[in-house]
Each structure stands twice: as C-alpha cells, then as structure tokens.
Amino acid sequence: MQAVGRLLNFVRAQSGIDGNWEDILVTVRVAAECEVEQLRDALPAVRATGYFNAGTNGPLPRVAQESLVEGATAEFEFGRIVPGVYERNGIRNRRVAALFADIVGADVDEIALTHSTTEGIGCVLMGLSWQRGDEIVTTNLEHPGLLAPLALLARRAGTITRFADLGNGGGDVVGQIAAAMTPRTRLIALSHVQWSTGAVMPLADIAALARERHVFVLVDGAQSSGQIPIDLHALGVDAYAMPGQKWLCGPEGTGAFYLRRDRLADVAPTYLRYAEWQESGYLLPKPGAQRYEIGEFNSPAMLALEAALSWLRDDVGLEWAYARTGELGARFWDAISAIDGVRLLTPRHRMAGLVNFNVEGMAPQDVAAALFERQMTIRYVVTHPCPPSARASIAWWNTAEEVDRLADAVADLAAGNGSRTE
User: Fold this and answer.
1) Residue 191, CA distances (Å) to 90, 143, 212 in order
2) Structural domain boundaries of the chain?
3) Model confidence pLDDT, tens digit, residues 97-115
4) Class of the CATH domain delimited by 65-313
5) 3-15+35-61+316-414: what fold?
6) Is residue 85 a contact partner of residue 74, using CB atoms and an 8 Å limit?
7) Calpha distance 183→179 (Å, rounded)
C-alpha cells in the first residue's frame, strides 16, 4: 500500500472536513483500514486462519498464484522447450534479480538467484579458500540451515566454529562477537533477524568490526528479507542469502544470494553452469554473481516470484509494510508481556514482527498445536543450541484485532486452558 500518496488523495477528495485535523485523522484511519482489507483480499490464506507464520512460509498473493497457474498451463499445453524458451527465461530471471536488488539495496550484478537461503550460504562456505584451523564465529541463536553447513565445512576443511553466546540477542552483540574472535578468525556468519528469539542484529556495527579485522561477513537473511528494511550497500556486509517463500510471499524453492562486487574473486563457484570453457582448461565464469546460479529454475515458480515481489514493492509498499509489521509486533509483545505465566525471549528494543515466547508448563509444540485448534497458525523452535520457544510471526497483513485475539488466546493457555506438559 503506497499509503501516503493514496491517503492524502483520499482526504483531499472528502467534503466537509474544512481543516479539522481530528476529522482528517479519522478519515485517514478509515481509508487505511479499507486499504488493508483490500490487500488482505489478495491473500486468501489470511482469511482461512490467523496467519502468524511468515517465518516459515508467507501467504501466497493472488497475483502469484495466477502467474503460477498461467505458467504451468502454458508449459502443459504448448511444451516447455519451444524455440525461445531459454532466452525468455534468461531475461525473466534477470528481471527477478533486479527486483531483489531493488528491494535489498544492491546492484543487479551482485544478485544470484537460488533455490533457498541455505544454497546461498553454501556458495560462500564452499567457495572461500580455507586452511585447516581457520576459525568461523557464529552465535548460539542460529538456524540449522547455517549451522549444518558450518559443521560440514569443519569436516571437509578442518575449520573451527566458535560460538558467541548472545543470550536472547538483546545485549552487547558486537562485544560478544568480538570476544569470540581470534587472529585466526576468517568469517563471521550469523542471521540478520534471529529465528529463535526475533532479535534484530546490529549488522552495520558487526560489519564495521569485521572490516577492522579483515574478516568476511556472511548473513543468513531468512527472517529479515521482507520483514525489515535492508540496504546491503549501507550495511557493508560481504554476502547475504535470502529465501523467496517467507516474508516476501513467493513460492517455495526460490531465493537469492548477494555477493558484494569486490568479493567476487574471493568466492569460487562450487557448481558451475554458466561459463566459457575449453579443453585446455581455460575457464571464464559469467560476469557478476550470476556465476553462482546452479541448474534450472522452475519457470512457473519464477513467474510467481516475480509477481509477488512486484506486488509487494508496487502495490503494498515495502516501507509501509515494514512499519506496520513493527507496530503490530510491538503490540503483541506488549500484550503478552503482561500475562502471568508467559516468558518472552524477544528483546523489546531490538525486534520487528517475530515474537518468541514460552507459556509456563507447556512445551512450545503444544502451544502451537493449541493455538491452531483456535484457528491461529504459529510455529515453534526446539532445535539445539537455540532456546526453545513458541514463535509468532506478526506481519503487515494481520489486523490489530487478530493480534489482540492471539494475545488473548495465549493468556487463556497461560491460565491453564490448554494441554499441559507433565
């Protein structure tokens, strides 16, 4: 929703306001809620349940579903490899890369399309040149999609992974990371928004620390892309991996990977599809980050991703979406913070829409199951070394009334009206 321009035009069109700002504000609020309802109509899944799980998969917009069906139907009826398909797909893929670049503050030649966040993470971990004993600093809050590749790298290359204990991510993050670094540290690998506590990491400060010590920074952007504003050039990180299916509302099996232009020579492609080569051993990869793209992409899914990203940017309005997500997330945090028997893991001063919490006497899985019985979909985290929790992904498509109902349902569970863990 391009809120400012549309709402101002709406207000100007009204009669009888005559400069009364209280009336104007009421009119604006009514117009805003009407626009939200129209946008929610474009996301049928949010009408079927209280949709609080963009941290796993976001709701698919109608325009994306229509593009997906149209693309699959065309392939079914006319074939998948008619003349011109490769050329058209290549042009389409660069359009999608350009959309990602615009959304995250990068240049299109710094963006490779991927099939998942972890694929982008692997591009860096398996593409850098390692020496046995090289060290990597990560945190106690990370997703297995980062930690498992780090473990694999340790087995293959003899690297050492050191963990900075950040607690819930609300304290001196930079200081804890700095304390875990040694002269052998070559990489800092962490999430921008932690899946396990919802904490937004001070990424620019971490990148500044890394530059001082000549250390590469790899970021897991699974929970940040589409949830918070991102300007990769301003942040100063080296690499950033993103999914398409979470807060960006695209289909599964999609994503993107950013590599800062001056780091291209440092990261060798692990899988190579697009390149010039000769039997003599001469090899010239594609220019820019496109060299990291592997294999084919599902064409209907890519069309759906393009439609979803365009809709978010042009119709919803990302700045408005980020702001609304933060406001509703804070509303939920504030509501459940006052409930006896509820313990919040998410730091209030360093959060957006992801809220992690526990209900005393209930396992996180039971909290999620009990809420689903009440037509509210959340998720849970029970993966070592992260602290266990139930997790609500509060997003711009939620209404204040939905958020309040979710908080009331959590209060009901805390009062003992749910399945208890013996």
Assistant:
1) 30, 8, 20
2) 3-15+35-61+316-414, 65-313
3) 999 999 999 999 999 999 9
4) alpha beta
5) Aspartate Aminotransferase, domain 1 (3.90.1150)
6) no
7) 11
